[in-house]
Amino acid sequence: MKKICVFCSSSDRIKSSFFKAATELGEMIAQKNWSLIYGGTDMGLMGALARAVHSKGGYVTGVIPAFLKEKNIAYNKADELLITESMRERKKIMEEKADAFIALPGGFGTLEEILEIITLKQLHLHNKPVVLLNIEDYYKDLLVFFENMYNKSFAKPDYRKLYVITSDAEKALSYIQNYRPLQLQSKWF
User: 112 near 143, Cβ under 8 Å?
Assistant: First the structure.
């Protein structure tokens, strides 16, 4: 069983189309008999994703820092709810448990999480699939920024292979299912 880590928004104030995408992704993860690892809240896309996995009989592991659990926003129906002391510990557990990573749209936290995963892959500290699920071109400007990094030699062009961009959940999961570890250039040589 593959364990899919999904980073995404905990905001309830976003457009319904983003909730639809999170729900579809969650249902598809469960239908493949894969499990979800995520940030453990019942809010925003995070909550929609976890409920969707459960709606199709899937397994949900939430990883949430104690200070957030104290705000009564944890998804208490998770099959496994791991409580951490810090955000850093949360990310470490999610990274270690996951077989693959997907970033749905989200805010600063989502961006920070997926960029750390990309960086760890660049440094050869893991070789797992990474997908940016680019719903409604959400990541368009970030991808332009990435191209600027490549064009100005702050990152090697080969690092475009560190991640895949798609707006389709089915294509994202197919990429993960068929993923073969990459041979990437060293950051320094």
Answer: no
Q: State pLDDT tens for residues 80-103.
A: 999 999 999 999 999 999 999 999
- The answer to whether 66 touches 40, Cβ cutoff 8 Å, is no
Cα angle 38-40-42, degrees, rounded to a multiple of 5 = 115
| 180, HSE (Cβ side, Cα atoms, 13 Å) | 1
Phi, psi for 102 (deg, rounded to 5) = -130, 135
- E strand or H helix at 61: strand 59-65
| Domain 3-177: CATH architecture, name and number where available | 3-Layer(aba) Sandwich (3.40)
Orientation of helix 16-31 relative to helix 44-55, angle to 10°: 40
Provide the total of helices (H) and of strands (E) in the chain, helices listed first: 7, 7
The amino acid sitting at 85 is E
pTM of the predicted model as reported, rounded to 2 decimal places: 0.96
